[in-house]
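Sat 14:20. Reprocessing the chain from the morning session after the first attempt stalled halfway. Input below, unchanged.
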Amino acid sequence: MKQALKLSFVLLAVLLANPVLAQQNVPPRATAFATAPDIPYESVPNFLKLPPNLYLGEGIGVARNSKGDVFVFHRSGDTRLFQFDPSGKFVREIGQGLYGFEMAHGVRVDSQDNIWTVDEGTNMVVKFNPEGRVVMTMGRRPEAVEGLEGTPIPGTGNVPPPPAEPYRFNRPTDITWDPAGNIYVSDGYFNSRVAKYDKNGRFIKAVGTRGTAPGQLNTPHSITSDAAGNIYVADRGNRRIQVFDGNLILRAIYDNVGAPWAVCISPGPHQYLFSSNSNPDNNNSLLSAVSGEIYKMELDGTVVGKFGKPGKQLGEFGTVHAIDCRNPDELVVSEITTWRVQKLLLKPQAQRPASSTR
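Finished this time. Tokens:
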């Protein structure tokens, strides 16, 4: 026993004497952090009002429709999709017990107020009409009841995933559309691609393989689009946002805002790009010390400002997994480790964009 204690003290002394070893694999701060202006904001207390004995689990997806209703896709005892009115009052549950629900990863609302869910457990995308009825599915749930496959780890000798197929996803993450209604799915943990479909779900093309080169992807975790039909991909594992045109030709890379867990582009004549450099969901304090903020950007990558920090209190962030920015001054964010959704009121000041952080 004494020998074991002595060995433990020796190991602790080595770690304390070697901070580089203790902090290995901790990335640097995002390069935009030092010069990006701080945007004042506040969080609305008790935004969502749930009925008695109904709870949120991990906040995975959040989106609003044109009426301001809020849709929350979360992992509880089961994967569930809740709808709230603009004031945060619970309205209904959609898709209870649905075969396409197993492990939520994203929810979005299109320009016709259809609700789309992305589930990495069933490898399915499901489209609901505004009334909450299923009107289209994409992908197919695996028949084998063997649970999720683990994400491949480079250099460990894991068997690589099979080649991507046009109509099968492999742990997809998110969805967006261009002005013509074409569908873009970030597919995701295994396939490391973006797949494009027409509005009826017919495969058109795909871009991306796992890697670090321009145009390659390492966990495309979120996806959004602008009014011109450009596609913005949160290439989380490579700590960058890659911008493609509607033909999936690479146009730009923004690598100054950390590891993007969630991206969103606001509507209107002046669009903004929001990107969350979320603190990881493993509660590692060393990683949280260099992450947790959300960036507001022009579409060309110029950083306008930043806001937020990791934490469990109101206005702090517990691993932001999705952002709704239908109103760029009133965001709604869902969080994993704090099991919640927050409504944020941004108070942008007259300020000069931090163009040097591009």
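The chain has one domain: 43-142+162-357.
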